[in-house]
Amino acid sequence: MSLIPVNAFDMNCVSHQASGLWRHPDDQSWHYNTLRYWTNLAKTLERGLFDGLFIADVLGIYDVYGGGPEAALRNASQVPVNDPAMLISAMAAVTENLGFGLTATLSFEHPYPFARRISTLDHLTNGRMGWNIVTGYLNSAAKGVGQQQQTSHDERYDVARDYMQVLRGLWERSWEDGAVLRDREVGIFTDPSKVYRLQHKSKYFEVDAIHLCEPSPQRTPVLYQAGTSSKGRAFAGDYAECVFIAGPSKEVARHAVSGLEAELQRTGRSRKSLKIFSLVTIVTAENDEAALEKWAEYRKYISHEGALTLMSGWTGIDFSTFDLDDPVRHIRNDAIHSAIDALTVVDPKRVWTVRELAEHAAIGGMGVTFVGGPQKVADQIETWIEDTGIDGLNLAYAITPGSFEDFVTYIVPELQKRGRYKTEYQPGTLREKLFGTSEPQYNTAAP
């Protein structure tokens, strides 16, 4: 039996996936704009031997619901949201092993300055950086940078491939390993003959420059990706080392895993070269009864409007135009098919209402939720992994940091007893901890 890798899933905002629970008296997410919140969280995660903190992000506001930003602002639906990159140095300073998966949208920043930012963070974390490669999905973000609307979905992945070509050139080929001499006697810090200019000219980017940073411990960070469309899967097959999926049923998760495995075969990669993390929310306590009581208490704080604001942004459907008791099957468009179909797979005969959709998404988004004491939840985790083929968990919260603290207190010891969870960290960089090697796991020959 293999060990289960686990990331915490958070965002530099008040209400990430759990809509309305910022009102719970034990929730501390409103401290998101203080360093102490993040450094305390990092120390908790490292105590629990989490592999990493996966930090979500959006550049833009959810303004599909009601045709404007009012509902998002009322419900703190991923707004206000601060820059996630600013958090990592502080968290790295109070930990030794915790990895960091930074979500950063490539659609609105040139790769040349971005390469420097990531190299800097990889230096400061001593090689514990990962990058979640996203192309964005909110038109409000595109308008914020002067565009009328986003580039089309498929073309965004074409841009992403070109972006990766630039980054790989800067990170991997601009500086040789022995370029930095630090020779005090001769007076040479860097040997100029071992530093090269990247000359890249293509449809999307033109770069004529030397990478500004000396090689960081990993050079290229561990590459995360979350797209599940055909273009997204193809991109993951070439570039992703870790993939994040959100499936509310085993069937949906298994289908996503099968699609990714097919892409690995296409590119000639081993299944071991990709870690697939599934979105999971866990509500637990000392026993099943106490966990169910906690679950019932959390549900008292659910915000239907907040959940539907996020759903509207994810699907492009303005749910404010429907009554809460309207059947969801009557609400269809190209954007919402995957979300609705994912839910109907859970129970094909069930007709979901808008209210039920909101209540499902209000805690944990479009992932699965496990409720119970340590033994029951550990059973659910093991069954989920066995039946879906995923490798690990992206653990979202109902309340923060309480949900993460409960996982450390109740679930980690139970999984350790079963031999399914590490008892100590492996040495080395994030890539070495995850894969046992410093060699990149992506397809280095990818176009």
From TrEMBL:
<feature type="binding site">
    <location>
        <position position="57"/>
    </location>
    <ligand>
        <name>FMN</name>
    </ligand>
</feature>
<dbReference type="GO" id="GO:0016705">
    <property type="term" value="F:oxidoreductase activity, acting on paired donors, with incorporation or reduction of molecular oxygen"/>
</dbReference>
<dbReference type="InterPro" id="IPR011251">
    <property type="entry name" value="Luciferase-like_dom"/>
</dbReference>
<feature type="domain" description="Luciferase-like">
    <location>
        <begin position="29"/>
        <end position="391"/>
    </location>
</feature>
<keyword id="KW-0288">FMN</keyword>
<dbReference type="InterPro" id="IPR036661">
    <property type="entry name" value="Luciferase-like_sf"/>
</dbReference>
<keyword id="KW-0560">Oxidoreductase</keyword>
<feature type="binding site">
    <location>
        <position position="229"/>
    </location>
    <ligand>
        <name>FMN</name>
    </ligand>
</feature>
<dbReference type="InterPro" id="IPR016215">
    <property type="entry name" value="NTA_MOA"/>
</dbReference>
<keyword id="KW-0503">Monooxygenase</keyword>
<comment type="similarity">
    <text>Belongs to the NtaA/SnaA/DszA monooxygenase family.</text>
</comment>
<feature type="binding site">
    <location>
        <position position="103"/>
    </location>
    <ligand>
        <name>FMN</name>
    </ligand>
</feature>
<dbReference type="Pfam" id="PF00296">
    <property type="entry name" value="Bac_luciferase"/>
</dbReference>
<protein>
    <submittedName>
        <fullName>Monooxygenase</fullName>
    </submittedName>
</protein>
<feature type="binding site">
    <location>
        <position position="157"/>
    </location>
    <ligand>
        <name>FMN</name>
    </ligand>
</feature>
<feature type="binding site">
    <location>
        <position position="153"/>
    </location>
    <ligand>
        <name>FMN</name>
    </ligand>
</feature>
<keyword id="KW-0285">Flavoprotein</keyword>
<dbReference type="GO" id="GO:0004497">
    <property type="term" value="F:monooxygenase activity"/>
</dbReference>
<dbReference type="InterPro" id="IPR051260">
    <property type="entry name" value="Diverse_substr_monoxygenases"/>
</dbReference>
